[in-house]
Design goal:
CATH class: Alpha Beta
Structural class: alpha+beta
Distance between the termini: 22 Å
Strand order of the largest sheet: 2-3-1-4-5
Mean pLDDT: 89
Number of helices: 2
Shape: globular
Number of domains: 1
């Protein structure tokens, strides 16, 4: 089991309700919990099906250099990148979207 944090933005209420089944909503759109890898993957599947035009960032504890890993869904100015094996975040200028379609990294 490991700590999981999910941050949502502009997602439908049905996804927020689904996340609240597994995680505690500590602020509007911010969910935390201690879940297994299997549950984390199931939650991500629900996110990709139900997020519609919203965007989501999910981070969890991991045994790597930074101590965590993350993935994102939907359009956002912040884009996850791989820099010599280290996951970082790049920012696009304010007038552009990160991707033309929904992606999961």
């Amino acid at each position: 089991m490991s700590m999981l944090v999910v941050v949502t933005e502009a997602v439908p209420p049905r996804l927020r309700g689904r996340l609240a089944i597994w995680l505690l909503e500590i602020r509007a759109g911010v969910y935390v919990g201690d879940v297994s890898r299997r549950i984390r993957e199931m939650i991500w599947d629900q996110i990709t099906v139900l997020a519609d035009q919203g965007n989501v960032a999910m981070a969890w504890a991991a045994p790597n250099e930074s101590g965590f890993d993350f993935q994102t869904y939907g359009k956002n100015r912040r884009i996850p990148i791989d820099y010599d094996g280290l996951r970082l975040v790049s920012f696009l200028p304010p007038d552009q979207n990160s991707n033309d379609d929904k992606t999961a990294l």
